[in-house]
Structure formats: C-alpha cells, structure tokens
Amino acid sequence: LETGCLSIIVLGASGDLAKKKTFPALFNLYRQGFLQESEVHIFGYARTKISDDELRNRIRGYLVNDKTASLEHSESLSKFLQLIKYVSGSYDTDEGFQLLDKEISKHEVSKNSVEGSSRRLFYFALPPSVYPSVSRMIKKCCMNKSDLGGWTRIVVEKPFGKDLESAEHLSSQIGELFDEAQIYRIDHYLGKELVQNLLVLRFANRFFLPLWNRDNIDNVQIVFREDFGTEGRGGYFDEYGIIRDIIQNHLLQVLCLVAMEKPVSLKPEHIRDEKVKVLQSVLPIKDEEVVLGQYEGYRDDPTVPDNSNTPTFATVILRIHNERWEGVPFILKAGKALGSRKAEIRVQFKDVPGDIFKCKKQGRNEFVIRLQPSEAMYMKLTVKQPGLEMRTAQSELDLSYRQRYQGVTIPEAYERLILDTIRGDQQHFVRRDELKAAWEIFTPLLHRIDNGKMKPNSYQPGSRGPAEADELLSKAGYVQTHGY
Ligand code: BG6
Q: ipTM of this predicted complex?
C-alpha cells in the first residue's frame, strides 16, 4: 500500500448502506491492519445534525457480530470508533463541503502529511439523485490540493441510472468532473470470493479449456434467490424492480466472467476489454424468453402502489452471438421472497453421444459454483454404483470451502473492494463503457415493462417463483438433475 495520510469520507453516513456495509467493511480492514491509525481518518457526512458520538453509537451495533464479539475486538472497536468524525451539511451547497474540506485538511496537517501526498476517498452511500451535485461539490471544495502526489477518488454504488439514457446522462455529468481512473463503480458481486475465482478456474485449469464452449455446454444458469421480500425497501425497489436491482448488474457481471475470452493479461483494462466484448455480443432479448413474477403480498407494503407492475422475480435468457457461444442459452434468474437464499452458477453439459449405459435419465454432467451461502463448487458426474451390478448413478466431486479451508475467513465483498480502491486497482469495478453496454441490453425490455406491455405472473412467497419460469427453463434445454 502507498503511505501517506488517508481520509475516507462516507457520504450518507447515517443511511442504511453506510451502517450495514461501508462502516463494517472499514472496521474489518482496520482490524486486519490495512488501515493504520497513524495515517487514516474516517469522516461521516450527512444532512442530519448529530455529534461524533451520536454517529459512533448509531453504527456501533452493526460492527459487532460473531466474528468481532471477542474482548480483543471490543478494544479495537473503541479505537476504530475514535477514528471517526462527523460533519453535517447539505448535498448541494458549498458550506458543508467547505467545512468538510477544513476538517480533512486539519487531519492531514495533524498527521504531518507531506504536502500533496494525502489521499482522499469519497464513498457515496447516497441516493443517486444527489450524485451530480455531490460530485460538483467535491470537485469545487474538497479535492486533494496539490499535484505533487496523492489522489482523490470517488466510489459510487448502483443504481447508476434507470435506463441507457439516464445512465449515460449521469456518467457524462460525473465524467466532466472526474477522470475514469478516479471513478470506482462498485458492483459488490465482483468482490465475492467465488466470483473472483472465476478467471482462475477458467484459465488456470486444463480441464476446462477445451470444454468451455458451444460444442460441449448445453446451457448456463446464473441464479439469485432470496428468501425475503422487499422489507422496508419497497419504495426504492418499486421504482427499480428485480432486473435493475440484481440482473442488469450482479448477474450480468457474473455472466461476463463466465463467458469472456482469455484476457491478454490480468491488467484491469485487459480484463474489462474482454467483458465489454461479451456484452456487446449479446443479442436483443426476445419477449418469449422472459418470465416475470411478483410475489403475492408485495403490494401490501404501504410504500408500494396498489397497481404496481414491478417484477420481484425474472427469468431472462441472453444469447451471445459469437463463435464460442452461438446457440447456448444463458439463463439469468433472480427473485425475492422465494423458498431459499442462494446464488449459484450452473454450467450444464450436453449429453454423451452414443451413450451405452442408458444413463441419460439420471441427468447430465453439471458444474455448479455456489457463490453463497457456504461457498462451494461441485461437479455432477455419472459413476458406477458401488456393488456387484453394473449400475450407474449420479455423484459429485465436491469442493466445499468450509471443509477444505477450515479456519480461513473469507473476506466480505465490500471489504475487498474498498481495499482495491485504496490500492488503485480497478479490475473489480465497472468501467463506463461496460455500464453502457449493460444498459443497452436491458433498456428495451425495461421500457416494455415500465409501459405495462409485459405483466408479472403472481407467485406464492416461499415458492420457486412462477411455474412459467420452470417451463421456460426446460424449453431452453435445462434438464433437472438428481442428487444435490
Ligand atoms: C443488492 C440489492 O445490490 O444486493 C439487494 O439491492 C439484494 O436487493 C442484495 O438484497 C443482495 O446481496 P447479497 O450479497 O446478499 O447477495
């Protein structure tokens, strides 16, 4: 890591994202020695007028969990909280940001920072509507003052707009103020352990190299399920829906890593170049390859309109028009209020030609990467059932992280991504052209839904989602296998 004074400014410090994700991630980095007291200071900024201690008390409860409950950690917790200061101000006037700048500069002087080598990281835990004004204010009042060294970076969260046009507008507004190298667009799925493992799996294993194509793979599913509804976020969610909330970003990013060609090197630009090519090769989505759902009871939320058409579930098939993937459906599926919480990638292989065992009914080879919960990957394969008879059965080659890496703590996605931001590594962040290509894929479909031309089917909370989704899956060629 570079040295020098580091100021981390959490904008929207009293909001949900900051409390649940940003501050806990910062605390974990601090506990592991990545944020040094001698260098770092954390500032919370928001409109609410509260004291430093009030902010500390508000976030304290979110920092203590099973991992951090020990005495040793409670000491580091108090020390960590002392690093946090609070500044209140509005998001669109100079006053607050001038005050913030003064506080940051005071800290930089107190840490004897060499002039110019100070680093300023602004984390936007804010509603996107204020991104443009906050970016303007930072540019005007809070930039690292010298060009002798150091930097100013901003971290922005989705939703980056609502469709292609609004996203491009937002990108241009921010792009006029900051260089691409200063903008870190977070998609927290890119910080998940098994998502980060995808490139290694694909390009460091001889097994997969010859198999990973249309000749051998029948279909790919990328699935996200949650076993709870929109609970308390109905207002936000209803405006966006499951496609904007999960599929257009998290699942599409995973798709890129599953489908992309081998990058020239591991340089962030090389990797992102390949991801963009995948996105640009996706064909327009066909209505008949989409199933939408809305769970019963969703509209009972007082923040959701009675006639809401917003999908809380969607299955969408994407088709990649290139030499490797022509004809292979990529089935993206996401839903709230389903029977279980799970995110996984299922790569299903074609049947064995000239099968002499008649084992087709038992199912196909499938490679499953479970992102959460309990990270794992397993290969379903056909083996001889132990015993005197020559019978075949489905079994698994199984790598469960909990067993294989006992005692290893898997870092939280946000923790990793914030550390990447401090290190200046943009590999796991979304580049502007990538974002644009992602919106290009989904905007026509989203507009059809917004205009009421496509309606969600209703489904029972706690179920698998609408039955139509399973029908679509079988039509696309997916064969339900037994076992796991
Ligand atoms: C967020 C969505 O981006 O991801 C939420 O806005 C969703 O609706 C969450 O619950 C899921 O993240 P994870 O890491 O729990 O799978």
A: 0.96
